[in-house]
Amino acid sequence: CGQCTLVCPVGALVEAPAWHAALEVLDSRQHMAVAMVAPATRIAIGEEFGFKPGTISTGRLINALRALGFKQVFDVNFGADVTIMEESAELLGRLMDGRQLPLLTSCCPAWVNWVEINRPDLLVHLSDTRSPQQILGSLTKRGPFARTLAATAGRPTQAFVVGIMPCTAKKDEALRPGMSGDVDLVLTTRELARMIRARDIAFGALDDDGRFDDPLGESTGAGQIFGASGGVMEALVRTASFIVRGDRTLPLEWHQLRGVDEGIKTTDVPGMGRVAVCNGIAVAQRLLQTEGWRTEYVAIEVMACPGGCLGGGGEPKSQDRDILTKRAQAIYTLDGAAPRRRSHENLSVQALYAEAIGEANGVAAQALLHTAYAPRGSARSLLMRFLDAVDRRDA
Ligand code: SF4
Hints:
Mean pLDDT: 90
Bound molecules: iron/sulfur cluster
Number of domains: 1
Strand order of the largest sheet: 2-1-4-5
Strand content: 5-15%
Helix content: 40-55%
Distance between the termini: 32 Å
Shape: globular
Order of helices and strands: HHEHHEHEHHHEHEHHHEEHHEHHHH
Number of strands: 8
Number of helices: 18
CATH class: Alpha Beta
């Protein structure tokens, strides 16, 4: 993918077509096929079928997935809301300890790969919260919803979880040590479009009334803005600043963190500190070369692709800033229209913590919602990969 080679200095971003395998699984009907839809995919997939850039196709996309044979369709935005719950708890813990600051976001696997390969000294700064894709996968496969899914199927069954992502690096993320098995297959937005065409589904003629399945279909505006550069940080600020101050007096929207143009975006969050957003790994490298980055910021978001995931290597190809801007506008339109716009206000997320997880970043959360990193090429990394390969062989 030309776009990826422009922006990604690691070797993970090669699109390996997987949609034939997905169709085989759907046709075999041996599994409960579950699709999980990323925030940026619902914005861009319409472009594959002649819709104008920025057209929101959520309902039509869900109906297409059901027509393909997926039995459950979940919203990765739910996973994003959980990511924010965990990352906020991590950040607040570090602020109290005064250690391992600034916190570096970790939901972009291309960025994580880059740190493991090039700057292992930064690993202590990386949030160990899983990405929304991997959180939703673990909740579906191993978490409290695995039993619910089996009951829905009416027979003992294993879910086959397919992530629909704007991203080629998410394929690599699903295979990381400790992650394997929670997400069975990752398809890019473009691959899904090919599948839809291969099955002669007239995307444009579908009704736009499809709805995600509950409870993993409920989400907030904060989960939706993960698809844009600055969105992860804005979502983090919305929840972490609320927890710090205990009131809703701080603004909901942080426009200083938005925009698809390359560069460093910063703002001061009262009660929390200064935060930064790097639109691209090259931009992060520039920031990390400055003298004061360790003391100036409490949190830094890094996303590898231009404009964030809405410009991801698995989206309909475009380097056109106008198109990226229209996709971003659509994302913020969805956020503005959402009845709840802070992750901690998601009622299904609240129920998840009350009934199954307990405390954010606590013992159960650590087991299900967090991960670990290691320098690439280190003895520990090689051992983790070997053990993971053995696990997968035995599964
Ligand atoms: Fe994937 Fe988004 Fe990172 Fe691009 S910015 S590599 S699409 S997670």
